Amino acid sequence: MSVIQRIRDKAAWIIFGAIALALIAFIVQDASFRRGNVFSNSSTIGKVNGQSIDKKELDEKIALVEQMQQAQGVQRDQLISSVWNFMVDETVLKQQYQKLGLAFSAKELNDILFGNNPPAWLRQQFTDPATGVFNVDQAKQYFAQIKKQKDNPNVSLFYNAYIQPTIDQTLRQKYNELISGAVYVPKWMAEKTSTDNNGIANISYVYVPYASVSDSAVKVSDDEIAAYLSKHPNDFKQDEETRQVSYVTFDATPSAQDSVAVFNQLSTLKSEMATNSDMKTFIGVKGSEAPFFDGYVTSVNMKMPNADTLKRLADGQVYGPYLDGQNYVVAKMVGRREMPDSVKVRHILVKTADRGQPVLADSVAKARIDSIANAIKAGASFEAMVAKYSDDDGSKGTKGEYEFPSSQFGGLTKEFAETAFYGNAGDKKVVKVESGGYSGYHYIEVLQQKNRQTAYKVAYLSKPIAASQETISAASSASQQFAAASRSKKQFEETATKQNKAPIFSPELRENDFSIPGLGENRTFIKWIFEHNTGDISEPTEIGEHYVVALINSVNKAGLLSAAAARPMVEPILKNEKKAQQIIAAKFKGNTLEAYAQSAGTTVQRADSISFQSPVINGVGNEPKVIGVAFNKNIQGKVSEPIAGNTGVFAVKGEGISARASMSASPDDQRKAIENNMRAQIRYRSMDAIRRAAEVKDFRSKFF
């Protein structure tokens, strides 16, 4: 099954680049991380249009993505959310396929895999690196072999990770073609679009910005906001309940005394570090945020604080403690040597084991690599040996060659790195390697070394500046006293005022959130917020380096937002409407631009060559209403009524409409471009539309 493994290794990018493909795979393993609760007897974590989604399935898909993205630093709570959203999308799509009768046949799969445009993951594996030609016969032969291994779990994994996503992609393409096939743009629309795009207008105008009226001069009531919401309900609906809290924090970050304690600790260890000759053991025993790196770092890569000072240390000399970020550090110069800043090598790898699975017996692998070395010394083609024998698929297409900057020294196996960087150009050597991923033998030839310079081996004893128990206890005690004095909203606000602590307001929180922006992650705290009511106050909760006491300010149910919740969005709109009324009544007197300018205390301005394609007035901003009036033939040579725009009130006088030389495509090309854009929009937005139309019941908060 080595081909399956190579496909998995070489096609990892398809997993990272398209999470939908990865999520479809299933790994049969105990990935469950249930937390005990009254719902533990049920495995249904949600429903989509009545169809259940099982928690085991969600767990399996999360486990796969964790495995595929283990080096990407993705947090588990982010995976739970993204995997859930994918499963909902996947379910509603399959329901649509079933309604429409969309299917996928074995013949279609055969055509996709072995036709003129095979999937990237398959083409990559079975393309001759020398010719660039996809070997369809070799691919067919391989598939014929794996069909006979039905009981092999790797075959099932391979199918679910690559074949099934290919099928799903094809079904999605069919669906997209169906829904976008109705797009039609008539010729007259294309011609009008072309004409509009080529039109330009010149105007004179008077402008009074809304900022000229103080915000305090206009008030907006809850009733006015509610009336606006009733007129625009679709713009202010939310799909799920949200809640907002205000909170005060009590700092448990390290104090000045804590910093001094760490400094003194390292100062005490400095002399012991200077006399100790075994830095690897010393660093390991004393404990350090920076583990000992048994290698040399070139001068150009010495970018840490005090690098110039460290370079001047004599061998065995110690420097510090000094501050590096949130750590105090003592550094010791272990030694120095000459080393290139970059190398070019070529190699052949014969593995004895791969990912814990045996490949060849050690004696067989050693005999093979020695035979390869002897054949090359006798004149055999290195490139031919790579193609025939090397187990490093990543370098087969480059004749076994790699280029490494010295900054990658620590990422290579020790034996490989030392051969490449510590030797000389022209060296040829067989080395045995043991790493977490594989073991075996390399035959290495050092082709080139560049920019030789002094490199340094430095040992760092690094200790974090952490809060002491006294600091933590003081913050905890202060938060408990605050909570004890705050048993109501009124008391919460009064106590905050007495202690000079301005409560911080959170953004809207959702039931399945894991963190509060600005505070950090604490799933238990989010659950508390959704298990209590408006006006309830939390006990002190530790989040990050703070103790937090929170007040639940509002509960916003799913559906149309309340006036209070919508105020931050609606109030500026209504204030501008009121400002426009005041400005028009007080500052637009007369019936000419000059009269308007005089009454408003401003000047008549001019804007030339404005167009529909860019509805912007230089120096003002985006003003589509004004641009639209500029192209109105009825105001050419005349003055418009005052216009309430985005940024202020305008009065406009048309100074002419003309057409510039056509820079756009022909009407037919324009029509095709519009259709293509509409199809792309439909494909992009269709998923959102069918999901919004679906009835989704989300029970995740009962499990996580």
Keywords for this structure?
5-stranded antiparallel β-sheet; 704 residues; alpha+beta; extended; 5 domains; disordered N terminus; 24 helices; Chitinase A, domain 3
Provide a concise account of the structure shown:
This protein is an alpha+beta fold.
Spatial extent as radius of gyration: 35 Å
Give the overall silhouette: extended
Count of β-strands? 27
Q: What is the averaged pLDDT score?
A: 86
- What fraction of residues sit in β-strands? 15-25%
Secondary structure category: alpha+beta
Number of domains: 5
Q: Please give the share of residues in helix.
A: 40-55%
Q: How would a textbook summarize the main sheet?
A: 5 strands, antiparallel
What's the number of helices?
24
Compute the separation of the termini in Å: 37 Å
Quaternary: single chain
Secondary structure topology:
Elements lengths: L1 H9 L1 H6 L1 H5 L20 E5 L2 E4 H14 L7 H25 L5 H9 L5 H6 L10 H11 L6 H28 L6 H12 E11 L12 H10 L5 E2 L3 E10 L4 H20 L3 H8 L10 E2 L8 H5 L6 E7 L2 E13 L2 E13 L2 E2 L3 H16 L4 H8 L11 E5 L8 H9 L5 E7 L3 E13 L2 E12 L4 H16 L4 H10 L5 E2 L3 E2 L4 E2 L3 E2 L1 H9 L9 E3 L2 E11 L2 E2 L2 H25 L5 H8 L4 E6 L5 E2 L3 E2 L1 H7 L12 E2 L3 E12 L7 H27 L2 E3 L6
Task: Describe the protein's architecture and organization.
With 704 residues, the chain is α+β, with helices and mostly antiparallel strands. It folds into five domains: 2-180, no CATH class; 198-235 and 564-659, no CATH class; 240-252 and 468-557, Chitinase A, domain 3; 256-339, no CATH class; 342-450, Chitinase A, domain 3 (Roll). The chain contains 24 helices and 27 strands. The strands form eight sheets. Strands 5, 15, 16, 19 and 20 form a five-stranded antiparallel sheet that branches. Strands 9, 10, 11, 12 and 13 form a five-stranded antiparallel sheet that branches. α4 (55-68) packs across α5 (76-100), α9 packs across α24 (667-693) and α10 (187-198) packs across α24.
